[in-house]
User: Fold Copper radical oxidase from Lepidopterella palustris CBS 459.81.
Amino acid sequence: MAPTFVHSALSGLLLISTATIVSAGALEKRILVPRVLTPPAKPATNWTYLGCYTDSVGARSLTGAAYNSGTAMTDEACVSFCISKNMIYAGTEYAGECYCGNSIASTGTPAASTDCNMACNGNAAEPCGGPNRLTVFNTTAPAGPVGPFVNPGVNGYHSLGCYTDSVGARTLATGVQTTGGQGALTVALCTSACAAGGYTYAGVEYASECYCSNTIASTGTSATLTDCNMVCNGNSTEYCGGPNRLNLYSNLQAPVGWKSLGCYTDSVNGRTLTVPEYPGTMTIELCTSTCKTAGYIYAGVEYGGECYCGNAFANGGGPAPDGSAGCNMPCAGNGQETCGGSNRLNVFQQSGTTASTTSAAPASSTVATSTAVGSGSATGLPKGWTYQGCYIDGANGRILQTQEPDSSTNTIEQCTATCIGLGYSVSGMEYGVNCFCDNFLRNGGTLTSDTDCNMVCPGNTAEKCGAGNRMSIYSNATLQVYQPPAPQKTNLTGNWTYQGCLLDNAETRTFPYQLILPNNNTANNCLQSCQKFGYGAGGMEYSDECYCGDVANIAAAGATLMPESDCNSVCSGNSSYICGGGDRISYYKWTGTPLNSWNFATGNAAGQYQFLIGGVIVPLIATPGINGKVTFLEKYGTGPPNTTGAYELDLKQLNNFTGAWRPMHVKSDVFCSGGLTLPDKAGRQINVGGWANDATYGIRLYAPDGTPGVWGKNDWQENVNEVSLQAGRWYPTPMIMANGSILVVGGEQGSNGAPVPSLELLPKVGPVVYCDWLDRTDPYNLYPFLAVLPSGGIFVAYYNEARILDEVTLLTKKVLPNIPGAVNDFLGGRTYPFEGTAVLMPQHAPYTDHLVVMLCGGSIPGPEFALDNCVFTAPEDTNPVWTVERMPSKRVISCMTALPDGTYLILNGGQQGRAGFGLCTEPNHNAILYDPSKPVNNRMTSMANTTIDRLYHSEAVLIDDGRVLVSGSDPEDVRFVQEYRVEVFIPPYLMGSPAQPVVTIAATSKDWAYGQSYSIGVSSAPSKISLMGAVSSTHGNSMGQRTIFPAFSCSGLSCTVTAPPNAHVCPPGWFQLFMLDANGVPSVAQWVRIGGDPASLGNWPNFPDFQPLPGV
Assistant:
């Protein structure tokens, strides 16, 4: 009988076997002890705790600097970081995020202090906010002083950087006095003085000196910007040179002999200037000089460091419809100059040359057109300038970009002369006094009747200077008109259809997923991302924002279509097209075959959750044994203090609570260890690693004994002084290799310690093998997913990466593409702490198809929204590709169980957060059935719901009768209970209590050699026979999982099954053999061993505390 202490200490728990679920929950609540989190009163000098405040991803309460820490966040650390950024507010959120600001946004409002209930991951005694909640601190001390910095320019002068100078050979020849004398010098005073003297260049030196000139002496050369390090006597926030160093300024818009044409469009596939040059570290002067030397009249600088030359504009390139906004990248050789941008050129033309274009087809829908010439009234125009007609202005925006100051003496000649002086080839007069300049007409300027331009010029009443929204246009070249940008409606990738301009709201977004594409936002780039991740609605906003979601999001947000004119921002990746506007989305809808088609089962087809038995512990790891029972291990101290922390559940004694739970014992803390069933004769279970100190080196073994209904006598064996890991490991993954050895991969030193980026073999062979890929991705790679590949090699997935290891050297053999994460965050991870789950897809005889690996769920850094997709690939393919399949809901810290019919049950977890205590919310109660035999994107069925929250430290395993045993949940969170109850999920194949077929296997036929045939007895003709690898379930990792459908043939009620051919297709181990009848109903499993014990684990470890050994 059970020991007395179990009966007496758990007498209250005995009632659970006959009590309601509510009673079990009430019991758990009685033993739950809430944590008390106390914010530091003074996290730094002059800093105080302000309170708990609301926050949201779409509208941050603190909008300054920010950072994230996965393991070391404290309130003090965050405050220190914000101090270093000269900010007066600091806030911590989601246990590991820090935000700073100099004010709290209006959207941030005080919240209940209990809302900030997540412990800092670097100090469990302090609160670090919560979901959409900030723990806020502030100081009354002002932010630190601004600057000093290099003044970018003033009074029409712009900075050229830092230049050398000397007393004997001045870079700028003329020294000048400035207002207030040397003690009051500023950049503005110096440039003003040089401008008054008619000088092109101005320079400040030694904090107090001002120099001017119309040329830069040859002795003056560009110097390192930090050499100009003395602040101005009259303004300590800006630099005024240094010893023998000038901060140099110029009022030239282009190098001498050149004129600026402005910002032009460009494309990699069709260059506006077709001759690339590579003169060195880029400046405007270097590019123009290079092009001139090479005989070209045009020069263009792009992307900070590229130079292009030409004698004509090609491929439809011309002035950018968004003006100079896209030319925003500093030159690599002079950060004070602008060298174009992404697909944008700053274009320059040699003075005295004539503009021209080629006949090449335009690269986009921006089309240049020629316009007929009209007649005008001006008589004194410069040679070559003619009247081009009266044009409508303002219909789609200004048709000429550069507006000069209004003039009460304006004439056609005066305005044209002004434009010529500025280097433009088009002039325009409007409303009498207005003068505009440009090189082309923009925004689809339309020719109208000359009589519309009927306002006289105030400087010459015989001339006409446009009218209201009418512009008199003059030019010295063939006039080109560029059409205004519009939504892209053709040449869309995929079956997307433009729907209109849709309302959005920065606080409550219409679509949930946002991508920022600062240089390449277009309809195709945005919508391809949405399509890949299964979202059938999306669009672009405010030029560089991309949003993805579902059509249903629109009604939920109350969004409606708005006037098309509200969407008026050009796309950052192609200014010919519109990408929304302020709080407006250029909205597209997928109108092809649905991107995903989920089924929603009802009745028996949905399966059912069913309460099984009340528990005695909250398990960390669950392992079905070959004796028909299930072992549970818990981390030390989770359950009541008088439990043993290790139990074996006898499913035959569910009506006898005491008999159902056999107490067992371990000697060290198994918190976050790994487990397997060994291929030795006894089917021993092994547990490796643990929480801290000796436990991290622990190797624990248990040989399942007893029979269903009868307690065994064996217990866990452990002695770290006799056998141990070479490296202490917390969160490791073990795996049986093809040669029968045990591979143990990864982990940390324990107690939130340093990484252990290595792997080792058991029984011990050689030293540990260092893995740079584990070191680099710590701490996001724990409990990596491992698998033996049929072609040889070992697959490993960790964080958002995957690779294949050589099974002999254990070194990298092949690196796979990165694993996709979220549509808006490729840094989403799949292993602890972002914890998704993984399985191997079924292998079918004759095993010619490559093995497919699938990973489901996970989370992203920062806001830690759970992932709503599965991804799968065949690692052995020549060029593996990850396919994304969207799930009906988000899921993190979940489980996935392989079923004997070849389907998979996805269950447990939450929809926000990550693994860890108190770090996951929004429990996901729904189960999903995944059927890989169906077409991609049609494989998922929403099944029954549970009423029990299964969060951190939950498990799901396949038991011998074909049901899924569901256990655990250890959130250590006042919002969710510590879960002792054990459930089962009944798959559809067992709903309605069908008679299960029977399989019989002789005791002498349960030890299979590779490729050999074995006889089994059946009660009816089977439709399938499956072999399900023995599993240990913890942290979403089903260690040992494998699904194999072997070849078989039957005659009457006798069948012959052929074992898999080798250890790469089927690593040595124990398997549940299921036979499914014609209706898909599985038998109760029979356990068989396949491949023997090639590493002789049955003779290991040969020490006193591990006797008797089972042998091989």
Notes: The radius of gyration is 37 Å. The first helix runs from residue 4 to 9. The first strand starts at residue 47 and ends at 54.
